[in-house]
Amino acid sequence: MNFNMFIHIYKVSKFPFLLLNYDNKLTILRKGLNIQINIRRWKMKRYVVSAVLLFSIAWLSNADVKKEYLCGIAIGFQPYQYVNEKGEPAGIDYDVTKAVFDNAGLKVTFIQEPWDNVLLHLMHNVGKVSMVCGAEMSDERKKYLDFTDSYYSRNIVIFTLKDSAVEKISDLYGQIITGDRHSFIERFLGDSKNKIRIMTTVSKEDSFIKLKDKKVVAVVAPLEVGNFIAKKMGLEVRVLSEKDPGSHVAFAVAKGDKELLDILNNSLSKLIKDGTVIKIMNKYK
């Protein structure tokens, strides 16, 4: 049979709207583009019309899907990155990241795991994360990752128990401590690090629990993180080393991902200038 149909697809906001009438043509309207195709006197079955509709809807919808970015974030790293009482990501780095993506009008989803996991996902480009937030910049990490401009700095120190017999770095030789890979302390220790057993843990909270239980003699951690956790645990600690002049902290992306790097830097620059980043930092003091 002859089957003449008029199909008009309206594009309003994010969603396509369809209006079907019988006539002699197919009209597709999208963002000011009006395409008309004559379908007069088609001898076709209904599945042809269905195919045209599905193709048109897919074409319209596809153009409006925003790319989703996956950001790796650590656990147990208060006040920078941790899990709040609702079981959700929280902290300074979380808030800054949200602000950066909101300002850029983009979507971000957080993948929260132990720090070593999220960092290795990105370094080896396994696709599980697009970036990580709150990463300390170092020459070693720059071999595998690209970094944005820094948005604050942290002092990395060595904590030990207040009543510990450890007084100097050489007292750690042959002992077990906890720490992060490629941190300032590893660089500071130099060849001495080969004389110390450095254990990685799932979180800084876990590190301080091990210190409290005397399973390790020291913990490498940012000064603010160590003080925050020790106070929370009621643990008396002291700082063995305060040599770090300040480790710059930034967003890290996969090596060569200039598109994401530029997006982050452009948005971050605006938030630093308008005082948003400082306001977020002050909220956690």
- H/E series, N to C? EEEEHEEEHEHEEEEEHEHEHEEHH
The total strand number stands at 17
Net shape:
globular
Q: Strand count, sense and closure of the main sheet?
A: 6 strands, mixed
Q: Which architecture of the largest domain per CATH? A: 3-Layer(aba) Sandwich
CATH homologous superfamily placement of the largest domain: Periplasmic binding protein-like II
Structural class: alpha/beta
CATH fold label of the largest domain: D-Maltodextrin-Binding Protein, domain 2
Please tell me how large the radius of gyration is: 27 Å
Total DSSP helices: 8
CATH class of the largest domain: Alpha Beta
Q: What level of helicity do the residues show?
A: 25-40%
Number of domains: 3
Strand content: 25-35%
What would the average pLDDT be, to the nearest integer?
80
Unreliable residue runs: 1-45, 59-65
Separation, N- and C-terminal Cα atoms: 76 Å
